[in-house]
Write a structure and sequence with these properties.
The complex is a heterodimer of chains A (218) and B (134). Chain A is of the alpha/beta class. Chain A has eight helices and eight strands; from the N terminus they run E-H-E-H-E-H-E-H-E-E-H-H-E-H-E-H. In chain A, helix 2 packs across helix 8. By secondary structure, chain B is of the alpha+beta class. The chains are: A alpha/beta (218), B alpha+beta (134).
Chain lengths: 218, 134
């Protein structure tokens, strides 16, 4: 019997592909954003609202991740954006290999900002790097202000958080101050954007922030 | 996968995909790493796998063990005992430097009340070592 030291990161294989994706994106001047949120938080609507706000300023491309169907990709394509749909067939997250294949099908030289809509899930996507530059989380007001208590890992591992459906704050008992206190305790450097894809409130600020990330650093 | 479960029986759906939990993909990585190191050492079989998992990881131990048992089937890693060493979350206050282990998801500093926690430990996720037979 012998004990062999290994000390090898379990996610290394995925992270190696993610690093290659990142290099490819950088070569083409594309800034990629991995969007992580629960089902129904409004990921697709927010992507469409942001893309509309950025029209003429920043060329947006989209990767849609879903268990099944292309209903999201159809909506995005109807808005005139280049889009690739990934169906995970039951998989609860996107992984770097799926993104590698999707990138082959996108006109990267015609994209400044690539918005990757991950599978609706607050747990699994956190562990799988895709090669993204930025992670954007979305919470929505109907989910409740105690979400950070239940899913601390996701809130601790994002760069920015959009609080969507802010127009419903008038109708629901959601304590924004308490929510922000919990979120910032988990992640002090977070950028925070209250938005409503329905009314358009807050969308320009989020769009400006994303455009700033995608702008070539001259 | 095709294994029967006492509650639901054998999956009937033709498009049933065993990757429905991310522990499946993760466990595949673990088996790959274990087999590679065991083969390199010229081992005949792996007896034990030691894993280090931070509390910030989203991995469920039982689920990894469940998938391991059949992903490792027919490999050098088959039948090995999985041992998980959990590393508690440890954070440091960016304002006053206080270091503590949060008991829940409220990471407000218990010493100064500021919300500026930085993670010092808890993100670990690696295969530490394996025990093999020659």
């Amino acid at each position: 019997m012998a004990r062999i030291p290994v000390v090898e990161r379990i996610m290394q294989a995925n992270d190696d592909v993610a690093a290659a994706n990142r290099r490819l994106l950088d070569e083409h001047g594309v800034h990629a954003v991995n969007i992580i949120a629960a089902p129904g938080a409004g990921k697709t609507s927010l992507i469409l609202a942001v893309a509309a706000a950025l029209q003429g300023r920043c060329r947006v491309g989209v990767i849609e991740g879903d268990l099944a169907s292309d209903v999201d990709a159809v909506k995005v394509r109807a808005a005139g954006l280049p889009v690739v749909q990934i169906n995970t067939g039951g998989g609860c997250h996107l992984d770097a290999e799926q993104i590698r294949v999707a990138l082959l099908r996108l006109p990267l030289d015609e994209i400044d900002l690539l918005l990757i809509e991950n599978v609706g899930n607050l747990i699994c996507p956190v562990d799988f790097a895709l090669g993204e530059h930025t992670r954007l989380g979305i919470s929505s007001v109907p989910e409740g202000d105690d979400k950070p208590y239940k899913y601390p890992t996701v809130f601790a591992n994002i760069d920015a958080l959009a609080l969507n459906k802010a127009d419903l704050l008038a109708f629901l008992p959601f304590d924004v101050a308490e929510f922000k206190r919990l979120v910032f305790a988990l992640n002090p450097e977070l950028s925070f954007f209250p938005v409503s894809s329905t009314t358009g409130a807050g969308i320009p600020a989020l769009a400006d922030w994303l455009a700033g990330l995608a702008a070539p650093s001259a | 996968m095709g294994r029967s479960s006492p509650r639901f029986g054998r999956p009937r759906c033709a498009r049933y995909n065993p990757r429905c939990m991310h522990e499946y993909a993760v466990t595949q990585n673990i088996v790959d790493i274990v087999c590679r190191h065991a083969a390199k050492a010229g081992a005949s079989r792996v007896k034990r796998v030691d894993l280090v998992v931070g509390e910030l990881s989203t991995i469920v131990d039982d689920s990894v063990q469940f998938y391991y048992d059949f992903i490792a089937e027919g490999t050098l890693a088959e039948g090995a005992q999985l041992c998980f060493r959990r590393v508690p979350i440890e954070v440091e206050c960016g304002a006053c430097g206080h270091v503590w282990q949060p008991v829940d998801a409220d990471w407000t500093c218990p010493a100064c009340g500021q919300a500026q926690a930085r993670v010092r430990a808890g993100r670990e996720f690696y295969v530490e070592s394996i025990e093999v037979e020659d």
